[in-house]
Design goal:
Layout lengths: L1 E5 L7 H13 L7 E5 L5 H12 L4 H22 L3 H28 L4 H25 L3 E4 L19 H12 L7 E6 L2 E3 L5 E3 L4 H13 L3 E6 L20 E3 H9 L7 H9 L4 E5 L8 E4 L10 E13 L6 H4 L5 E4 L4 E6 L3 H11 L5 E11 L6 H10 L3 E5 L6 E7 L3 H17 L1
Parallel strand pairs: 1-2, 1-7, 2-4, 3-4, 7-9, 8-10
Antiparallel strand pairs: 5-6, 9-10, 11-13, 11-14, 12-13, 14-16, 15-16
Helix pairs in contact: 1-3, 2-3, 2-5, 3-4, 3-5, 4-5, 6-7, 7-9, 8-9
Length: 440
């Protein structure tokens, strides 16, 4: 059984959804079926949240064009995407019904004059409900054996609206009772990411990245063989392509590496969202909807040993605090510390200082203390043998501006601390080592 998740840009319009349909159809013969998890169409969630907040105080004249815009966009997508007349009309009718429900709910918010977190979640839920309704109609029109499924019937959460916590034990029970029986060979279940419900049926959302999280949770609960995260990039890259033009996708990496890269500046999927899959030892494959034949990146619990180093990331605008005194101020900044290293003689802390507020917090914490401080960038180099002496020596040779090389605080990462002005050239130099090694 396969779980396939498609994010907002992958389902942004009828052309994108047509690509998704072709990708799903190419997997239609998967043994034990497919769960397709969709996000709302691109920008729809933000539009719905704006509508919800506006409804609390705006007049009908203000609300009508906002609501009509959501309706018109989704009707246009359904009209273009679904070519079979009867299914097209029935899907458009379902879109109208959902938009009518959205309008009625916003009228209720207006009557109360208040938009609560619970109201935000309910209004936001229409994005995924609309996208999956349209896509399931398109699947049927393409002759696929598809079923629309309301994920809220299995995704049990607490009452922390807008960032609800999931009861994984209940989800497993619910999935085995209702979702698994729907999955047979050549069956396709279309459902929503991001959404859940409390025990008494009130709609919740799982926060940003919630669709990836949904895919991982459902995959773990249903015993999937693989989870595919389809997005607009071809996997996890060796470096930020905006900094390093030679950056390219990493074929296989460990969950630990993904987590480290995410912490230290890389724009990758949030590691916590795929943790349920990794815990269940299910591989997660990151793929590009718009370049479907690119191999992408496979993320697993076990550490691949295919290279010494896999990727480099950077956090710029940091401050290094170096002191030989006992650290009495750590509690004031501890939650912001990116890296800490100590010897018998001294301690070094690396803290983010990207905003005025972060710099003020550092100033307050070290006021009156005997410390040396400097503006730096923190570069993380991840890989199976990042801790090996040969790797550390190689990094030292290509990073002459490094003020410190920190090894030992992570099993898969070695850190370079450089002056902020040397960050870009150092990242490129380190990536040159990765690129040349992987090209051999």
């Amino acid at each position: 059984m396969l779980v396939m998740k498609f994010g907002g840009t992958s389902v942004q319009d009828s052309d994108a959804l047509q690509r998704v349909l072709a990708i799903v159809a190419s997997h239609a013969h998967t043994r034990n079926g497919i769960i397709v998890v969709l996000s709302a169409t691109s920008t729809t969630t933000d539009a719905l949240l704006h509508i919800a907040r506006t409804a609390a105080h705006a007049s009908a004249d203000v609300m009508q064009p906002l609501l009509q815009g959501v309706r018109d966009r989704h009707i246009a997508i359904a009209t273009t995407l679904i070519t079979e007349a009867v299914l097209r009309e029935s899907t458009i009718q379902q879109v109208h019904e959902l938009c009518d429900q959205l309008t009625d709910y916003c009228d209720g918010v207006a009557t109360l004059g208040e938009c609560t977190a619970q109201s935000l979640d309910m209004v936001a839920s229409f994005g995924e409900r609309l996208s999956t309704t349209i896509f399931e109609g398109a699947c049927k029109a393409a002759g696929l054996h598809s079923t629309w499924f309301d994920v809220r019937t299995v995704m049990r959460t607490n009452e922390e609206f807008t960032h609800a916590g999931v009861d994984h034990a209940i989800v497993r029970i619910q999935c085995r009772a209702t979702l698994l029986p729907m999955l047979t060979s050549q069956s396709i279940v279309v459902t929503q990411g991001f959404l859940g419900a409390t025990a008494d049926g009130r709609t919740t959302t799982l926060g940003r990245g919630g669709s990836d999280y949904t895919a991982a949770i459902l995959g773990a609960a249903c015993g999937a063989e693989e989870i595919q995260i389809w997005t607009d990039v071809s996997g996890v890259y060796t470096a930020d392509p905006r900094m390093v033009t030679e950056a390219r996708p990493i074929p296989h990496m460990s969950f630990r590496e993904v987590r480290e890269l995410a912490i230290y500046g890389a724009k990758v999927l949030h590691p916590d969202t795929i943790a349920p899959a990794i815990d269940a030892n299910i591989p997660v494959h990151v793929l590009n909807t718009f370049r479907e034949h690119d191999p992408g990146t496979t993320i697993t619990a076990e550490q691949p040993l295919d290279a010494d180093l896999h990727a480099v990331s950077v956090i710029r605008s940091c401050v290094a605090i170096h002191t030989t005194e006992p650290i009495t101020f750590i509690n004031e900044v501890e939650e912001h510390v990116l890296l800490r290293t100590s010897t018998a003689e001294s301690t070094v802390l690396i803290l983010p200082a990207r905003t005025d507020a972060e710099r003020v917090a550092i100033d307050v914490a070290v006021a009156g203390k005997i410390v040396n401080r400097s503006d730096v960038a923190l570069i993380a180099v991840c890989g199976p043998r990042a801790q090996a002496a040969s790797s550390v020596g190689t990094l030292a040779s290509v990073a002459p501006h490094a003020r410190m090389i920190i090894s030992g605080s992570s099993e898969v990462t070695t850190f370079l601390v450089v002056a902020d002005e040397h960050a870009l050239e150092t990242v490129r130099a380190v990536h040159g080592v990765l690129y040349s090694a992987s090209s051999e």
